[in-house]
Amino acid sequence: MKKILVTGGAGFIGSHLVRLLVNKYPNYSIFNLDKLTYAGNLENLSDVENQPNYTFIKGDIVNAEFIDQFFKEYKFDAVIHLAAESHVDRSISNPIEFVQTNVLGTVNLLNSSKSIWSESYQDKLFYHVSTDEVYGSLGEDGLFTEDSKYDPHSPYSASKASSDHFVRAYYDTYGMPVIISNCSNNYGSFQFPEKLIPLFINNIVNNKPLPVYGKGENIRDWLWVEDHARAIDVIFHSNKLGETYNIGGHNEWKNIDLIKLMCSIMDKKLMRDEGESQKLISFVKDRAGHDMRYAIDSSKLKKELEWEPSLQFEEGLEKTIDWYLSNEKWLKTVTSGDYRNYYESQYSNRQI
Ligand code: NAD
Ligand code: TYD
């Protein structure tokens, strides 16, 4: 039985990936290591928690001693590394936490993998899940390719860029079998409502203001999270050691256009008059260092591994809105406690 460690499996993308792997590969043992920060929630995996090929372990990747012991005990064949601090606004308020988890945590995992694989790298893999934000910001034209220069601007993207460099350094220096993928913005079920789409769904439901940063002209390339999980599965099984793959949705949206589309879909779902939810839009002070545009060229992935996004955005967005509307209990649970304090500190002084 192949033993695969997924880190950060209780988070948004991690939980979709764990679900896919547990259901699709009964002959793999899937281990999910997660610290369960505010963003990690075991409810995200309640449908697979009793499967015989699934094990959850609570732990912190920053704790080198624990990670080393843990790897020695389980002797994983492969690691798919998603655990991270993932929200740009939080990284602006607390960069150190991002350095610890995203940089140090990654290096701890690399070291422990190297140590348990010291006899042979045969059939072993360290797969690092990263973001397109490491490439910085695009102007009006062009797309990020695998050869784009690293140019991170936020503490989040700088920490992810640093972790990517460490992963490549372990390939170059120690010959460790690694693969990296850099994906665009994900959307879908189980995303913590601090990121744009679930935050705005939650605020529209509760008739709260929709805080649009700056003029709302920034552009993001949105990908359905289950398509990302599918891409990770394909890349994981590709045996393309040392390679990088960009994953994207060919789906660029200006924030304000996306927000207006969400408002209009939700007016219908909530039986509100057309235009009612749009009245909640409130332009607030821009995010510091706000990247203008992200867009991914994923032609390498399509050409070499035949992956393509499966879902049209309008369909995916409606599915996503339906999921949040019918999972009110999940939303209520995750929006209590720490979330409230965080929300207050982010937005109380932001009105312009
Ligand atoms: P998330 O914030 O929803 O989940 C992160 C998970 O990591 C949580 O379950 C959390 O508890 C866990 N975690 C955090 N610190 C930890 C630590 N020290 N030890 C162990 N576990 C820890 O994030 P996400 O959106 O699912 O992103 C997952 C990965 O994908 C990240 O590496 C992120 O950089 C990358 N990524 C995300 C997006 C996106 O749009 N969300 C896009 C591209 C790449
Ligand atoms: P976000 O979901 O935080 O992802 P990222 O910054 O990693 O791309 O934000 C997506 C876009 O939405 C980004 O341009 C910032 C903007 N945004 C707002 O305008 N208001 C908000 O409250 C949030 C969270 C994001």
CATH topology title of the domain at 2-187 and 223-247: Rossmann fold
The biggest beta sheet reads:
7 strands, parallel
Helix content: 40-55%
Question: Shape, please?
Answer: globular
- What's the overall average pLDDT, rounded? 95
CATH class of the domain at 2-187 and 223-247: Alpha Beta
CATH homology-level superfamily of the domain at 2-187 and 223-247: NAD(P)-binding Rossmann-like Domain
Number of strands: 12
Task: Give, in spatial order, the strands making up the sheet with the most strands.
Answer: 3-2-1-4-5-6-10
Measured by DSSP, the beta-strand proportion falls in 15-25%
Order of helices and strands: EHEEHEHHEHEEHEEHEEHEHHHH
**CATH architecture identity of the domain at 2-187 and 223-247:** 3-Layer(aba) Sandwich
State Rg.
20 Å
Helix run count: 12
Ions, cofactors and other ligands present here are:
nicotinamide-adenine-dinucleotide, thymidine-5'-diphosphate
Ranges where pLDDT stays below 50 over 5 or more residues in a row are none
